[in-house]
Design a protein that fits this description.
- The protein is α/β, with parallel strands linked by helices and 472 residues long.
- The chain contains twelve helices and 21 strands.
- Strands 8-7-6-9-10-11-12 form a seven-stranded mixed β-sheet, covered by helices on one side. Strands 17-16-15-18-19-21-20 form a seven-stranded mixed β-sheet, with helices on both faces.
Amino acid sequence: MSKRRRRAQKSFENVPVVDAGARGKSVAKTEEGEVIFLTDAVPGDVVNIQTFKKKRSFYEGRVTKFIELSERRATPVCKHFNTCGGCKWQHMTYESQLYFKQKEVVENLTRIGHLELPEITAIAGSSQQYHYRNKMEFSFSANRWLTLEEIQSDIEIEDKKALGFHIPGMWDKILHLDECHLHPQIGEDIRLSVHAFAKAENISYFNPREKTGTLRTLMLRMSSTGENMVVIQFFQDNEAQRLALLDHLKESFPQITSLQYIINEKANDTIYDQDVICYHGRDHIFEEMEGLQFKINAKSFYQTNSQQAYELYKITRDFAGLSGEELVYDLYTGTGTIAQFVAKKAKHVVGIEAIPVAIEDAKTNAQHNGIDNTTFFAGDMKEVFTQDFINEHGQPDVVITDPPRDGMHKDVVAQLLHLSAKKIVYVSCNSATQARDLALLNEKYQITKVQPVDMFPQTHHVENVVLLELRK
């Protein structure tokens, strides 16, 4: 064993876990000030630790023994907790999850952005802590992930088929799920039925290394209106087996509004360059919010927590403080859901998005909803959002921006500073990159409101909405 490896393997005893860290990890700190990141502890625990990795300023380790258990602990509801990477905070009370999410937002804005903040509005928690996701994507595998107990046992594992999630960090390893508590029960019933039927009919599962097998992925979309979409992706097309499975779902689940499939023989399983074939029902489902209907197809983007998306959009609209006379720019508009949600309170809304198919969805939905005061444009934000664009489409009174996790390009931030709109409402799924952008905008703008929103209970992810007002 190398010296480097020996230094990484170090034991600590009676170490308090003092905080929740990034990416769902917890933070332990020794009396000597050594910091250790853990994946299996909760703030308030006291533990013995074995480290396995050494960085410049911290270790990564695992708990070998719990000495004291935290009052913040909860009993995980899922048997796959700590193996599946989907719900890393199931072992923490929901009240504590909200506390640490809001704490992360505040620390990122103050430590990274060095920003002066108003009083933070308490994080908007979710009334549903489980079964809240309206979209789930599962993978089939011919060789499922085996637990350490299975590997060490003398029992020969005959059934290695899996329908579930990728093991974190492993592209070809799938954990088979006997249960999942993230989506509504109808989705779970469909998933289990697909697996049982495929096993009974001996339909082969995909092998990503050998590039063989029939069943590849299963996508489920379940709207708050009770409509359900099932999309099955096949690698090798065995027509008889494909028809048998699709007919089984059609007959067994009359709740399915849209039953579709894809034949994808390429190396990766992304569907955006693939033809989606509608086998039964419509090629879309509808989501609804305040009477607005949003058409969702297999490739559409829509917030995966419908109920909390509504809360997020209401906060965004409230922060914008529209009177009906404002020109609003909605940057990174996606399928235009925020743009259409605020349109009835605005004079006109201009949406910009890089993905052309999303803009087509936005236009279709606006027409379907009878909204005639929105205009949508597709293109790279830094290329589209220019002074020439503003000269042509008008000086906005309010800008709403909801960028991806990487935040806004520096040219977009520079354009916002030059634009000097009266208000900017910044919606973010990553408060660290949001803090970086806000620090740049601080030159001209004052933060007047901050509202975190919990979109993903049982995980460390948190959304944050910030209102910026032009300094006087």
